[in-house]
Design brief:
The complex is a heterodimer. Chain A has 19 helices and 17 strands. Chain A is an alpha+beta fold. The radius of gyration of chain B is 18 Å and the shape is elongated. The relative contact order of chain B is 0.24. Helix content of chain B is 16%, strand content 44%. The chains are: A alpha+beta, B alpha+beta.
Chain lengths: 765, 185
C-alpha cells in the first residue's frame, strides 16, 4: 500500500481502516455466534443426559451428533484456512504475522490445556461410571426377582389348578343339561370370573360368568386337551403378553383346564373338561411385571453398554473438538484484534522512520492501545507540521541566500571569507577578478597558498591579528588598509593593482575580507597630479627660454663677421644649437601646457567621416612609411564634436599606429601591413564608433591598464602624452574609449583603439 | 417345511424356497427361510428384549429401454418377544412399523417354545405382495424379496454398539423372475 500523500487520502485511508475494523468485528461476532450455538447444542445434549430423558436423547442423538460434527468440520475448515493464511503471510514475511502467530499460539494453548484436562477427567469418569452401573450382584438379584415372580405365579397357578380339579368332581355326576347351575356354584367357590364346560369335541356344554354371553368362546387346542387328559389339569397364565399396557395387571388371569373325571368308568363315555378363568392378584402381578421390566431394562443396558459408552465418549470428544476449535479460532480472531493496534503502530513507526510523515491511521477503540495509536497519529501530525515549517523557513533562507549570492557575485568588490585559521571558506567572482587568481579552486586552503598572494596573505593575517587583538580596546568593528598587489620596485612598468582591503569579524570567528580595485582611481589621481606638475613646470621653464633664445641670436648678430673664420663657425654652430634646443624645449613645454590646460571643447555638429578623410590627405602614400587604409561607414550620422580637437585625436592615433607598426617591422623585410581606420554606425547601441588598428606589437599587459596615464609609453622616444591627450579629449566629448590588443588564435597581432561617440542630438532624433 | 435350528452349527442364511402365486385378486408370495438367529440376538431375546424383523417384497417390471420400474412394494414387520414370567413366546405381525406406545391392534400369536416361534417366522405363506391390476399380463416382472433383522427399532445404544458387528447381522434375500407365460396360464 502506497502511503497516502495528502490529508484527504489520509482521511479516506482511516475510513478504510474503520471499515476494515467493523468487518473484523462482524467476523468475530459471526464466528462467536456460531461457536455459541454449537456450544449451546452440546449443552442441550448434556442437559438431556443430565435429566436422564433417555427417550428424547436417543431419538435426537443421531441428528444432534451429525449437526455437531458438521459444526466441528466447519470450524476445522475455518481454522485450517486461517492457519494456511497465517502461514503464507509468515512465509512472505508480511509485517506482524509473527506477532499474530505468537498471540494465536498463546491463546490456543490457554484454550487447549484446560479442555484437554477436563476431557481426560471426564473420559475416565464416564467410562468408570458406566462400568459401575453393571454389577453381578444386581444382575443376580434382578434375575432372582424374575424367577421369584415366575415361581410364585406358577405356584399360584398350580394351586388354582388343583382347586379346579377338586371342583371338577362336582360336575362329574351332572349331565350336560344341568351343568349350568353346578358351574355357577363352582365359579363362586373358586372365585373365578368365568367357568366353561367343554366336551371332547371341543364344544362348550355349559358356561358360567362372562363367557356365557359370548357366542363362541376361545376353544382350547387339541394339543392342550391331550395334555390335560394325561395330567388331569393344566394351568396357563394369560394376559401378560403385552405388559407395556398399564391394564395388564388387571387383565392377568390364570386359565385352568381340568379333566372332569367320570365316575362310570366306561370307555365310551366322552371325557369332559372344565375350564375356569381366575384373576390373579393385581398387586402380585404388578410387582412381577415391575421386576421383569427392570430386569429387561437392565439387560438391555448391559448389552448396550459398549454402545452407550461409545455414545458418551463420542459426545465428549466432539465437545472437546468443538471447544478447542472454537477457542483456537476465537484466539486467532481476538489475537488479530489485539495485535492490530500494535501493527498499526509499528507500521506507522516504520513509515515515520523512512521519512513518511503522512497522516497515520488511528483506531477508535477505547482501550489504551487505541489511545496509543491516536497519540501516535497526533505526534506524527505535529512532527509533519514542524517539518513543514522548517522546510518553509529553509526555503526562505535559501532564497535569501541565493539573493545574497547573486549580489555577491555581481559585486565589483572582492569578498573572501576566511575561517579562524586563515583558510579560505568562500569567495566571490569579484575576488577572482581582482586578485587574478582562481580563488574558487583554493577553498579550504590558506590564502597564502594562492600563487602571488603570499605577501598579501601575510599582511592580511597581520592586520587581522592586530585587529582582533585590539578591537576590544578600541571598539572598532573593522580595519582598512590599501595594498599594492604584484608590485615590485619597477614602478609604472608592472602589473601593479591597487587595492583597498577592509577586514571585519563575522560570527563564529570567521573573518570577512572585502577589497576594491582602486587602480583606476589611482590612475586618474596620478594623471591629475601630472597635469598640475606639467603646467607649473612649463610655466617655470618657459619664462627663461625666450631670453636665452634672444640672447643667443643677439650674440650671433653682434659678433657675426667680427671673428675669424674658425671662431665664426663655432659661434654659428653654438648659436644654432642653442636656438634649436630652446625651440625643442619650447615645443616640449608647449605640449605640456597644452595637455595641462587643454581648452574646453566647443561642440558643434560634425561629420566624422569628412574629418577623417580630411586628415587622411596628410597620410598619402607618398609621404608615409606605413599606408593608412580607411573604411568609412556612410550611414554615420553627425556627432557633436570639436573639429580641432578631434583632428588631433585622429593624428595622435594614426601616428601611434604607424610608429608601432614600424617599430614591430623594423629589421624584417616583410611588406609593412597598413594601418586601418574605420567608422561604424551601430544601430543597436546608437553610437558612432571610430576605430584605429595596427599590426604592431600590441600593448604589454601592464601598459594596457595604464596606457591613458601621462608619460606611460612603449616608444623609446616619446613623451607619453599622446594617448593621455586622446583620453582627455574623449572625456570632454563624452565618448567611451576602449583599448585592446587584437588577437588571432591567442597570439597578439596588434593593438586597437576605438572611440564611440553619441550622435548629435538634433541629427540623431 | 421347517428348518430345525441346530445350535452350534451355523447354517448359511438363505431363502430356501420362494413361490409366487398368481391369483384373481393379486400376486401372492410364499417362502421358506433358512437361518439361525445370531447368538447375541437369541441371548437378548431370552433376556426379555424384543427383536424386530422386516420382510420386504418389491415387484419390478422389466423395461428394455429404461431401468426397471417398481410397480409394487410391500413391507411386513415382525416382532418376536419372550415373556420370562410365563415362559412363552409371542410373535406380532404388522403391516406398519411398531411404535413405542403399545402394540395396538396387531396380529399376535403365542408359542410355547423358541423353535415354534422361529419356525413361524421362517414360514411365509400366501403373502399378498401386489394387486392384480399392477401386474401386466404380457410383461416380465422381477420380485425382490428381503428378510432382515431390523436394528433400527431397537434402543439407540444397541444400534451404536452393534454397528458393524456381525453378531447382530441377519439378512436373507432372493430375486425371482415372474415370466409372462406364468401369467398367461
Amino acid at each position: 500500500m502506497s502511503p497516502p500523500e495528502s490529508s484527504q487520502t489520509g482521511a479516506s485511508a482511516s475510513a478504510h481502516a474503520a471499515a476494515r475494523q467493523s468487518r473484523a468485528v462482524r467476523w468475530a461476532v459471526g464466528v462467536g455466534a456460531a461457536i455459541m450455538s454449537a456450544i449451546g447444542m452440546v449443552l442441550l445434549f448434556l442437559l438431556t443426559l443430565a435429566t436422564n430423558n433417555r427417550a428424547l436423547y436417543e431419538r435426537n442423538y443421531a441428528w444432534l451428533f451429525g449437526v455437531n460434527v458438521l459444526v466441528a468440520v466447519l470450524l476445522l475448515a475455518v481454522l485450517v484456512w486461517v492457519a494456511v493464511r497465517l502461514g503464507m503471510r509468515l512465509r512472505k514475511g508480511r509485517f506482524g504475522s509473527r506477532l499474530l502467530v505468537k498471540l494465536a499460539a498463546i491463546f490456543a494453548l490457554v484454550g487447549l490445556m484446560p479442555g484437554l484436562l477436563i476431557y481426560v477427567v471426564s473420559y475416565q469418569f464416564v467410562t468408570r461410571s458406566i462400568e459401575s452401573w453393571f454389577d453381578v450382584k444386581v444382575e443376580g438379584a434382578l434375575s432372582a426377582g424374575v424367577n421369584l415372580a415366575r415361581v410364585s405365579l406358577d405356584s399360584l397357578a398350580a394351586d388354582m389348578a388343583s382347586k379346579a380339579r377338586n371342583a371338577s368332581a362336582q360336575v362329574a355326576q351332572v349331565p350336560d343339561a344341568a351343568a349350568g347351575l353346578v358351574l355357577e356354584r363352582i365359579r363362586d367357590q373358586l372365585g373365578a370370573t368365568d367357568v366353561v364346560l367343554w366336551n371332547a369335541a371341543g364344544q362348550a356344554v355349559a358356561s358360567a360368568g362372562q363367557s356365557r354371553f359370548s357366542l363362541n368362546p376361545d376353544r382350547p387346542g387339541v394339543a392342550l386337551l391331550r395334555t390335560v387328559r394325561q395330567q388331569r389339569a393344566t394351568a396357563q397364565i394369560e394376559g401378560l403378553d403385552d405388559i407395556s399396557d398399564p391394564a395388564a395387571a388387571q387383565n392377568a388371569r390364570v386359565k385352568v383346564l381340568a379333566l372332569v373325571s367320570s365316575p362310570s368308568v366306561g370307555l365310551l363315555v366322552e371325557p369332559r373338561y372344565l375350564q375356569a378363568t381366575l384373576p390373579l392378584p393385581p398387586a402380585l402381578v404388578a410387582n412381577a411385571i415391575a421386576v421383569q421390566e427392570a430386569n429387561r431394562e437392565y439387560q438391555e443396558r448391559a448389552l448396550a453398554r459398549g454402545g452407550l459408552r461409545r455414545m458418551y465418549v463420542g459426545t465428549l470428544t466432539l465437545s472437546l473438538f468443538l471447544a478447542v476449535f472454537g477457542a483456537v479460532l476465537l484466539a486467532v480472531l481476538l489475537g488479530n484484534q489485539l495485535a492490530r493496534p500494535l501493527l498499526v503502530l509499528a507500521e506507522g513507526v516504520r513509515e515515520v522512520a523512512a521519512g513518511n510523515l503522512s497522516p497515520k491511521a488511528a483506531l477508535q477503540g477505547k482501550d489504551e492501545l487505541g489511545g496509543l495509536t491516536r497519540s501516535f497519529a497526533l505526534m506524527t501530525q505535529q512532527l509533519s507540521d514542524a517539518r513543514h515549517a522548517v522546510e518553509q523557513s529553509m526555503g526562505e533562507v535559501d532564497a535569501a541566500r541565493a539573493n545574497l549570492q547573486t549580489i555577491l557575485d555581481n559585486l565589483t568588490a572582492g569578498v573572501i571569507v576566511l575561517d579562524a585559521q586563515g583558510l579560505i571558506r568562500s569567495s566571490n567572482p569579484g575576488a577572482t577578478r581582482i586578485l587574478r587568481a582562481p580563488m574558487a579552486a583554493y577553498e579550504g586552503r590558506p590564502l597564502s597558498e594562492v600563487p602571488g598572494l603570499a605577501e598579501f596573505a601575510a599582511s592580511v593575517q597581520g592586520h587581522f591579528d592586530a585587529f582582533l587583538g585590539d578591537h576590544e580596546r578600541h571598539g572598532l568593528d573593522h580595519w582598512q588598509q590599501p595594498f599594492e598587489l604584484h608590485a615590485s620596485s619597477g614602478g609604472v612598468g608592472q602589473h601593479a593593482t591597487s587595492l583597498v582591503a577592509r577586514g571585519a569579524e563575522l560570527p563564529d570567528s570567521a573573518r570577512l575580507l572585502v577589497f576594491d580595485d582602486i587602480s583606476e582611481i589611482v590612475s586618474a589621481q596620478r594623471a591629475q597630479a601630472w597635469g598640475e606638475v606639467a603646467r607649473r613646470l612649463a610655466h617655470e621653464i618657459k619664462n627663461p627660454l625666450t631670453p636665452i633664445q634672444l640672447s643667443a641670436e643677439r650674440l650671433e648678430m653682434k659678433l657675426s663677421g667680427k671673428l675669424p673664420g674658425p671662431e665664426q663657425a663655432i659661434l654659428a654652430k653654438s648659436v644654432k644649437t642653442i636656438v634649436d634646443q630652446v625651440d625643442a624645449m619650447k615645443r616640449l613645454v608647449n605640449e605640456f601646457r597644452d595637455y595641462a590646460r587643454l581648452p574646453a571643447a566647443e561642440l558643434h555638429a560634425l561629420d566624422l567621416n569628412a574629418l577623417v578623410a580630411d586628415v587622411l590627405h596628410l597620410y598619402g602614400e607618398e609621404n608615409a612609411a606605413v599606408r593608412v587604409e580607411a573604411e568609412l561607414d556612410p550611414r554615420c550620422p553627425s556627432i557633436a564634436g570639436d573639429a580641432q580637437q578631434l583632428r588631433q585625436v585622429v593624428h595622435n592615433l594614426l601616428q601611434n599606429a604607424q610608429d608601432a607598426t614600424e617599430q614591430a617591422r623594423a629589421g624584417t623585410s616583410e611588406p609593412v601591413p597598413p594601418v586601418r581606420i574605420s567608422t561604424r554606425w551601430s544601430e543597436s547601441s546608437r553610437r558612432v564608433r571610430l576605430t584605429v588598428s595596427d599590426s604592431g606589437g600590441g600593448f604589454p599587459a601592464h601598459i594596457l591598464q595604464r596606457a591613458f596615464e601621462p608619460y606611460v609609453t612603449t616608444k623609446p622616444r616619446g613623451t607619453g602624452l599622446g594617448l593621455a591627450v586622446v583620453k582627455k579629449i574623449a572625456d570632454e566629448h563624452g565618448a567611451r574609449i576602449d583599448l585592446s590588443n587584437r588577437t588571432e588564435d591567442g597570439v597578439v597581432r596588434g593593438a586597437q583603439v576605438s572611440l564611440s561617440f553619441a550622435p548629435e542630438p538634433a541629427v540623431a532624433s | 417345511m421347517v428348518q430345525p435350528a441346530i445350535a452350534g452349527q451355523p447354517v448359511d442364511p438363505e431363502v430356501g424356497e420362494l413361490r409366487l402365486d398368481r391369483a384373481e385378486d393379486g400376486l401372492y408370495l410364499s417362502a421358506t427361510l433358512q437361518f439361525v438367529l445370531p447368538e447375541l440376538a437369541e441371548d437378548a431375546l431370552y433376556k426379555g428384549i424384543p427383536m424386530f424383523f422386516v420382510a420386504e417384497a418389491q415387484v419390478l417390471r422389466d423395461r428394455w429401454y429404461w431401468s426397471d420400474r417398481q410397480v409394487a412394494e410391500t413391507t411386513r414387520y415382525l416382532r418376536l418377544s419372550y415373556q420370562p414370567l410365563t415362559r412363552r413366546w409371542r410373535l406380532n405381525i404388522s403391516p406398519v412399523p411398531f411404535t413405542n406406545s403399545g402394540l395396538g391392534v396387531v396380529l399376535g400369536q403365542n408359542f410355547d417354545s423358541y423353535a415354534d416361534a422361529l419356525s413361524a417366522i421362517q414360514r411365509i405363506s400366501r403373502w399378498k405382495i401386489a394387486e392384480r391390476d399392477v401386474i401386466e399380463s404380457d410383461a416380465v416382472h422381477t420380485v425382490n424379496f428381503r428378510f432382515r433383522l431390523d436394528m433400527s427399532q431397537l434402543p439407540r445404544p444397541f444400534q451404536i454398539g452393534a454397528v458393524g458387528r456381525s453378531g447382530w447381522n441377519l439378512l436373507v434375500s432372493r430375486s425371482q423372475r415372474l415370466a409372462a407365460e406364468t401369467v398367461a396360464k
